[in-house]
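Input (3,4-dihydroxyphenylacetate 2,3-dioxygenase):
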Amino acid sequence: MVNFDIIRCGRAVLHVTDLEKSKEFYDALGFIETEADSENIFLRGLEEHNHHSLWLKKKAEPALEVISYKVRSEEDLDALAGFFESQQRQVIWMEAGSQNALGRSLRVMDPNGLPVEYYARMDTAERMLQRYDVYKGAKVQRIDHFNCMVPDVEGAHNYYIDELGFACSEYTAGEEERIWAAWLHRKPSVHDVAFMNGPGPRLHHVGFWLKDPMSLIDGCDYLAAKGFAPGIERGPGRHGLSNAFFLYLRDPDGHRIELYNGDYLTSDPDFKPIRWDLNDPMRQTFWGHEAPDSWFEEATEVLDVHSGRKRGLEEPLLKKRKPNFVT
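Output:
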């Protein structure tokens, strides 16, 4: 039994090549800019009371630096460090003050080769939930989840459940009942992190919660009016998996963002994971239309927390293919 308490997904740190273009894009989605300088932009959703859920860093190449989870206490950080070290996973401590607005944190490479961070404390910021005078675009409310492309989804599924205390809400099975994708959570929603089969490790997308389905439409209209229509990759639509409404976008550096609303409660301990067949056309899109090839093939490369260099890609254990939707 785990002796640490991971609360939820907390933030993503993305490298971008042009801060001004990125600022215009994320502003059009309705993010609140907490703080910025010539090298960084810190963004949060309207209902978030923490300093940021998205940190954009100006760098020469786009990449994911780290995905971060919030834990309950400083003691949980120490327990996590002991756990990782018992597995011979090297931990990097980031002392309080070494990252803007963040307390002490630890970084580690997970078994999938993903750069992951855990923290307990972040500076607070004004909660803008009822500041309707600043609502615009898609009116992003809060961070909801990460989706990661990995070579061994079953291995990721088992590790996060058995070792880190996550639970599975839904999963996709292919040939011989091998798990092709899995949706795992700590907070009582469908997911804090999803894993999908493919060359990796890579970040497929970061998902942000909206207040209602109409916000997806408002977001599309605002993006189109601002000249960002070519960045609309997929949707709006409704997922079969999660039952949520979705819109997938590509920011100016190609990072994929999902705007998301309408999943369900998963808090009951006797909740049974929902199985989907890989070739079920209602799985990815409840209304049946297919995702574009780019959605299956393209994703953000990730950095090693120790070297700072991009991780090489490994081919997936399961056959890499776009699902064959049978009608």
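Residues 74-86 form the longest helix (13 residues).
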